[in-house]
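Consider the following assembly input.
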Amino acid sequence: MRSGITRGGEVLRALFFVAGAIAAGLLILGAGLHAAGYDAAAALQALWRGAFGSWYAITSGTLVRAIPLIIIGSGIAIAFRGGALNIGAEGQFCAGAIAATWVGLHVGGLPGWLAIGVVLLASTGAGALWIAVPVWLRLQFGVLEVITTLLLNFVAEALVSLMVQGPLQEARGFYPQSDPIAESARLPFLPGTRMHAGFLLAILLAASLAFLASRTLWGFKLRAAGANPRAALVSGRIQVPRMVATALMISGMLGGLAGGVEISGVSLALFQNLSPGYGFTAIAVALLARLQPLAVIGTGILFAALETGAGAMQRDAGIPSVTVYLVEAVIIIVVLLVDVFSRRHRNVMVPDSPAAG
Amino acid sequence: MTLALQLLGIHKRFGSVKALTGADFSLEKGEIHALLGENGAGKSTLMHIAAGMVKPDQGAILVHGSPLNPGSPRSASRAGVGMVHQHFTSIPAFSVGENVALAAKWAVQPRRIHSRVVELSQRLGFDLDPDVRVETLSVTQLQRLEIVKALATGATILLFDEPTGSLAPQESDALLHLIERLVLQGGSAVLITHKLNEALKHAKRLTVLRRGEVTLQGAASQFTAHDLARAMLGEDMPSDIRAPGHSVGGVVVDAVGISVMPIDGRGPGLLGATFQLRAGEVVGLAAVQGNGERELIRAVAGLVRPSRGTLSKPQPVAFVPEDRTNEGLIAQFSITENMILGSDRTAPWVHHGLLDTGMAGQAASRLIERFGIIAPGPDVTAGSLSGGNQQKLILARALEMKSPVIVAENPTRGLDVRAARSALRQLAEAAAGGAAVMIYCTDLDELFLASDRILVVSGGRVIEAPPRPDREMIGRLMLSGASAA
């Protein structure tokens, strides 16, 4: 079971390559900064300090930022395993955030556990609703979900703008943002930090999805449907469209949930540009994790650290934080290349003949 | 005697596998030379080396006495070596003329392309409309297109890779006559095949490869089919495949007037077919590709639903699809994973929806042993197996279902004699064990060997062949429906 349950040796190998990829990315960043006349050492130090330099940086910066990446990323891992390319998590995140805000403003009378539950449920539902349209279009007309989910991102972002200037705008009507949600609807915090209970939720979700994906018959069928839909149908009698739909729904729901968690645990109100591109970064996070939800925890924290550290680098060393995307890109490219080469190496075909094989 | 093509001392390894060890081959000008061998014997590799598509580790390639640059398709093409592939290499959405122009790197001048294609096809004695889109062509026409493409590049040495694999007997004969005509016009041809009679009948000389070495070479007239089989297999041909003395039981599949829409929107589909399958019999299905045989098989397999008529059959029906790597297996999955592909919750390795991979692996190991699948273990990918072993895996999985009905779509496609016989024998044994077995086979010899009775599908209709039919009669029935597939 090669990609289902990776053996210890393979995990170590993968870790080794990721570590190498990170080193390569940082090296290229450092070299680039140096060439551009910046103090590379100081910049990388700032990056490290911002991400891992203190207890506060770790808990309130890196890990808080990792929460939506892990939640969305493990959902995307499931979708991609089934061959369904949901690249609309950004939109599902927005939909979830809108629903969470709306509900969160009106649950002041409920006890905390119930209020939070209702908020998160509403955001999950909104995410499901947001992806239901692409799912329906795909099942009914065969419209590619890559396109529909992507396009719905813009609609969702516009909807957020509409909401914060319309129905959900703060009572005094000054800024384009909502009022803060009810106290009872806020996720509990780790005292002295900004770390909230969403982190536990994210770990729990990633672990459950990992179990679902690699230990159950359903997870196996999902992987078969993604690897070769025709063979899955003809030889496996797997209802591929239904698998794809389910996988898409799961990832849509998690996208929405991530939006709800962000509202309930971090922003406490709805803003424009609430997400710094979580929905897109999460795709990279899932791919880097080789679509293993458990590994998404690690890659999610890695990318969160880079982006959190990038903020510090901008503040302390005056280097634009976007340069860190370079590092992310290099990591992904290196890891994908290693993947391709190692696969080519491992599967030395035993051909009957090179073409007719 | 002048030599058109010479391959001298060719060595080639793929990883740890020796594909060719010191193979010598020569093609005289103006001859048809049959190249025989089992799958994996190296015959395709040898011809790919001649065409510059594979670079040999060692050895020389001479065309009309002058050496080629090994591993350079351009050098081979310039010297006049052209390959007619087993798998069609045309672009379906393009016209015939556009495909020829693309292959021959002609300038885009529609009128000129048109006239040159017409001229080439008339020279060969058939009509091929340059303006028609390739996706509407029949298998025979596709093959002609491949030949025209090769000639358009200026090839005079044509290498045919198993050209008669998917043709009716009359069509095969027509193609072989076409090749003879090409040779009369000054060309030379290599015919890669594993059909012994075809080689003996049409080739002037022949070469047999076994495990990368030449085991027999000489004039076709001095050998018998028996000699060739020996040289190919290293032993005598396995004899009869049918388990003797089993009895035919009750009706298991009963189809009354079923119609099925054409699966790819091509061909007639199935038009009101009535037939029965009984327990313990092997029913052979003869058809020119695209006459409704695919629809019939897939309806019985439960993959398509008849639009009309009644079809009663047990659930589930074990199915062996023709396309091993796209429908039969998931190439990047392990043997174990492929074996459990159709598992549901009742499988012994599924407990409450959880997959017991250890148990599945053990079951796969047992199957590997029982069906003689040659593989290092159950964890290797199915894509790394040879075609014959892939088919063994698919058959093993189908037979393990213990379904009362097994349908197999061209189960011997691309397999060498031994692997093909082994596949047919396994299906026959399943019938002997009480299953109703239906086999569609493009090779009529194999169909005759394996079947208790034969149904012919032609133009979407099913005709029951009389007992003990001969090839000519089946061929006539196959072409009677007159649906140009």
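Chain B has a mean pLDDT of 88. Ask yourself how this observation constrains the way the partners meet.
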